[in-house]
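Checklist before submission:
- one chain only
- standard amino acids only
- sequence pasted in full

Submission:
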Amino acid sequence: MSITVFFPVYNDENTVKRVTEKSLTVLKNLTDDYEVLIINDGSPDRSGEIADQLAAEHPNVVRVIHHEVNKGYGAAVRTGLENARKEWICFTDGDDEYDVYDLLRMYPLRKHYDLIITFRYVKLYSGLRQFISYTYNCVFRWLYRTQFRDISTGLRLIHRPILKNLNLESSSPFIGAEIVVKTMLKGHPIGEMGIQTFPREFGKGASTSVKNILATIKDMFSIYRKIFSPEYDLPPNRRQDPT
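Returned file contents:
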């Protein structure tokens, strides 16, 4: 089996090296065919520079893709998915809140699922962030008619061949939810695994910023309108009768 681990970075100069080195250690324990892909989403700090140094230290194993400007978390994830070269793709966040060592536990589940997502059973976050996460998951479950525990976690493992039929669009953090619901509608099996997360050690995360919350809401309803329309994913040569 071959695996790509990728992660976006934005203001993550203090953790990009740590996450890269942990990823390399984990991958060496799983397979001989692997790569680490770092997506610099127009970060204003030294994240991109450090990522380039890591690529120079690990040629042919670590690659870096730079966005000239910040395009958003969802756009960075789509860039990673589009440029991953291996059969399986694990993606996480560049701030080390999710521990890539959990990939060792996710790895055996690939025999049963095409997509493995994680849910946080211990949340060491502020009360506000936990409330936002709880509300977001409740709205998503109601709107999209699913029962997934935690749709917004940033550690996932996906079988690359299924991506060609998903047509991902989100540029916001809603990308994780979009991957899940479109995979579900295509009939691919999805597994859930419980994990713990860890507080961000440096700076402040942007996932619960007003800008990202508004962008997520916009993408949530935009994707909803497309999926729950009479034109979505129809059988060949079949159209709904508008009358």
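Reviewer check: Residues 2-227 form a domain with the Spore Coat Polysaccharide Biosynthesis Protein SpsA; Chain A fold (CATH 3.90.550.10).
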